[in-house]
Amino acid sequence: MKIIVCIKQVPSTQKVAVDPTTGVLIRSGIDTKMNPYDLYAIDLALQIKKSTKAQLTAITMGPDSAKAVLKEAMALGCDDGVLISDRAFAGADVLATSYTLASVVSSIAKDVALVVCGKQTTDGDTAQVGAEMAAHLKMPFVGLVMGIHDVTTTSIGLTSDQGNQLVDLNVNYPAVISVSEKVGQPDLPSYFRLSQMDETKIKVVTLQDLDDHDPNHYGLSGSPTQVEKIFEPTHDNDHVLIHGSTKEAMDHFVEVMTSNHYFRGKDHG
Amino acid sequence: MAAYNKVNASDIAYFQRVVGLTNVYHTDDTMEDYSHDEMSIYGIFKPGCVVLPSSTHQVSDIVKYCDEHDLSITTRGAGTGLCGGCVPIHGGVVLSTEKMNQVISIDPFTLTAVVQSGVVLMDFNTKVNALGLLYPPDPGEKSATIGGNVATNAGGMRAVKYGVTRDYVKAIEVVLPNGQIITLGGDITKNSSGYDLKDLFIGSEGTLGIITTITLKLVPLPKMMVSLLIPFDSIEKALSAVPYVMQLPTTATTIEFMEHDVLVDAQDYLGKAFPNKDYPAYLLISYNGDDMDVIRPALDACMKCVMAHDALDVFLSDTSERQDAIWNARGAFLEAIKNSAGVMDECDVVVRPIDVAEFIRHTRFLMGKHHVRIRVFGHAGDGNLHVYVCKDNIPDEKWRGLVNTVMDSLYEKARELNGMVSGEHGIGHAKKGYLKEALDPVVLQLMKGVKKVFDPKRIMNPGKVVD
Q1: What is the ipTM of this complex?
Q2: How many helices and strands, by DSSP H and E, does chain B display?
Q3: pLDDT band for position A241 (50/70/90)?
Q4: How many C-alpha atoms does B388 have within 13 Å on its Cβ side?
Q5: B434: which of A45, A214, B33, B388 is 20 to 30 A away, CA to CA?
Q6: Which domains does chain B have, with CATH numbers?
Q7: pLDDT digits (tens, 9 = 90+) for B374-404
Q8: B143, B316, B320: best mutation site toward chain A, by most A Cβ within 10 Å?
Q9: What is the pTM of this model?
Q10: Looking at the structure, do residues A134 and A246 belong to the same domain, yes or no?
Q11: Between chains, do A36 and B321 touch, taking CB under 8 Å as contact?
């Protein structure tokens, strides 16, 4: 049984510059880390691996430096990694990204049972790549998975957090799932394993390795999205320190909360 | 024991003239918070009144008045202490520094800050960090005041690399028990000019005078800290590795030890899982620096060292999410144990780092002998343990005697190992008896003599430390 986990290297800071012409994030020269949501995907995949002995492969798209997140995935317990790296893949939007990832899965892992993605990335934030991959691969998709049960080598029970309700369902392989952070606290990577890492377990895949190697389907040229404007969200970080006796402090607290509309005044019930 | 007058209406009227009507509390509901610290187990003591000055001159006027009218004064910061140090066991005036909360200056050029003693540690940290500076002392209780930290010589988790509060105090402005204002130390690095009275005040717990303004030393803020969570199959093996880690060329920023059960308490308390709790015991070792290229050689050396000394693996915490998950749990240990125990007693003895394992073995022995739950965690790098004896379902009538027996035995063990009563919490009134037992009688007499020189009428925080 084969499981693929899709992961991404993202900037480790919120303060990232954007290319004003292309709307693409300027990634060179900044500190990076694994997309935090992907850690939940790896954690869930490791739970499945525990009961099925599945082969767990992490895949990521990016430059050579993105090997760092593959190594981290292996230090967390993945068996091997695939770096999808080609100039032709650069500047991809959601559609081109999901198509590239789906092409890799169908080209190098035709017998895959499960593709596991994080809910979203912290740099793109679209939360669409998993679902679009499923569409390209013609596989069922279950989003926001927060738990598993009845894991076998032919099907898996999933609990999906649909916001106002939890949905329990059983899915036959192959399938694509995205994982919610509610799945639990991810484990830490082993620094010891990182130091002993066998880098030959990381395979590099280029455009030529894919069944569809038409460059127009990938990267910037395969991306219909037009970014009009990217801007940083504003953050309010005001704080008030309340002093005084318990009663004074509580009165002041209620006053602050009411005047900021967190509490309703008595007149409003 | 000196006889103190009780606070009366004319005293309150005077204090109101000095600090303003709203800055004197004298009713039961406004004074309740000031009648205990974080350990109500050591008693609730009602003040005669609570006075909240905002300047050194107001403090001086209050103290002078108390001296003339035989009123005792207990100075209080944020009230986060754990040994009753700021609690008015003889009633009288509680002088709260909570309104003396101004950061007077931060100078990045000379790496110096001047603060009023009521500045809250976390507020100060936010301000200095924003300027690319670090105030290294790192006590777990971030809502404590700097003045309280100085009065108890608070330590914290970074002591293994940076030292304790004492090492960062350059000067203090003090109001003496007769109301006189003096400055001890200075904005200088070296000082061989007579007895160091500044250092005498640090850790004196408000028994010699009132610290009103503090000049602090700062260091440049390292841009990142990376932690290694290192599992072992026993706490003894974890602690045995510590001396080898301490011998490495790069000094770790923190070396903490923790056991599986404490992690489970923290997890239950926070409702959030710890990133790894599959093993019986852990060391949590951190290194700081400006980037990974600087820190990586230290991490590599530490990993090699612990793997050669029985570590089962080495886990990496290198992102803000991971650091938050680990350090939020570590920061919640005290509250988590308190929450799980209902009532507890604690001690923060300090021994040589190589004796920590033996001390922990003794706590296990006491657990078995007295059928009581004892939780331990602490600073493996400096030998400072935090030991909590949990009441759980032990009946009230049995608890007091039992906890005293267990505490007596813990302090006896610390003495046997040539340790000290308190590493960072202080003595207050709760640990006074244990300090007396631990000190050479000659040393105790000298301490009492010091107290007498500064405070002949014993109006400053009576009944604390050696009084």
Answers
A1: 0.83
A2: 16, 18
A3: confident
A4: 25
A5: B33
A6: 9-98 (3.30.43.10), 103-220 (3.30.465.10), 224-333 (3.30.70.2190), 342-438 (3.30.70.2740)
A7: 999 999 999 999 999 999 999 999 999 999 9
A8: B316
A9: 0.86
A10: no
A11: yes
